[in-house]
Automatic annotation (TrEMBL), chain A:
Name recorded for this polypeptide: Anti-sigma factor antagonist
Domain (STAS): residue spans on this chain: 155-266
Keywords: Phosphoprotein
Pfam families associated with the record: RsbRD_N, STAS
Record carries keyword Electron transport: no
Lineage: Bacteria, Bacillati, Actinomycetota, Actinomycetes, Kitasatosporales
CDD domains: STAS_RsbR_RsbS_like
Domain of life: Bacteria
Keyword Ribosomal protein tagged: no
Organism: Streptomyces wadayamensis
TrEMBL record, chain B:
Protein name, UniProt field: Anti-sigma factor antagonist
Gene: rsbS
InterPro entries: Bact_StressResp_Reg (IPR051932), STAS_dom (IPR002645), STAS_dom_sf (IPR036513)
CDD domains: STAS_RsbR_RsbS_like
Domain STAS, first and last residues per copy: 3-114
SUPFAM superfamilies: SpoIIaa-like
Amino acid sequence: MTEDRGAQRLVELLADHEDDFVTQWVATVGESLSGRLSNAELERELRDLYAALRSGLASGALASREDGFAEIRSLLVELSRNRARQGFTPTETAISVFALKQVLEPSLTGSAKDIRAYLQLSRLLDELGLLTAEAYARTREEIISSQADQLLELSTPVVKLWDGVVAVPLVGTLDSARTQVVMERLLQALIDYNSTQAIIDITGVPAVDTQVAQHLLKTVVAARMMGADCVISGIRPQIAQTIVALGIEFGDIPTKGTLADALRHALDTIERDKRLAENRGSLL
Amino acid sequence: MTDRVPVLQIGDVLLVSIQVDLEDRTVLDLQDDLSKRIVDTGARGVVIDISALEIVDSFVGRMLATVAAISRVLGAETVVVGMRPAVAITLVELGLTLGGVRTALNLEAGLAALRRAVHTERPDRA
């Protein structure tokens, strides 16, 4: 019963001062955002929210989870997503909701009914504010994961360096997921470019540990099984020291200091193979 | 009755093109057929084309190594050609490296690899 009356009083209050409240709300929020969002846009957003809040309260709902607030929930999630993309902080977004409390304060008469109504609204707005924070975090996570995907795409190009030679300039740390992508791309490139030589350049790999070496070895073995030779290049002095200190064995895989050396090695090998395979009349 | 993998002779080379899914029985038949043909023809090289092979297991991986070893005993060099990227990745994940098996990107490169192998070996044998 008492809850019902609280909602009733809120609906009245919000209906009576609609224009006043919205104007003040826009002013308060506009101040906190320090002009990074145009007033017209802000007013449109907040007016929508206000209307949704009123209709939610009018339906008798008081907790943000209830069906009556479905509209304002989706509005807030949308608003929070946009704010997250525009680079606003979660605080700034949440304040947009909390500011309505501040706006309402002066119009309270101080009667018990008003106080109950205000507390009711306050609780509701707290929940809605938290909702925006949640939506904000979710949006940021989506952005981060899509950026990680883009990074994976960007950071593993396979280039044709010469006839029969492809190279993969690796940039960044090599983990299992990236090794998989690098391996797939490299092996496909071997077929596409009909290459018998592959150069894996690790100039851009910040550190080589046993795990990274393991991934490199896997890639080399896979390329070998398809019939291509691999050279690892771009081993900086620092990295060479680490490799020796860790006792990493690259076995019979040729390693070179620079990409240029590796290319020369690859071309020499192609030349030597061609000479050795020269057709002497018969098939063999 | 299981499919048998045909073994074709081109000059000094035997060509085995695997076009069917390999069952264990097929693999064993192939080993039999191939070793017999090497002896009969006196072939110097064997090319195993696996470009149509999409799925491999460790048994097939081991078969390739075994066939190569058998051929070598009989005096023929083996080269495996046309391995697909997915197959190579699978074999690596299975921990098989096919060490000791010559590989090449395609048939042409495979024949070149055989020529290389035969020519570099000839002085040793003489």
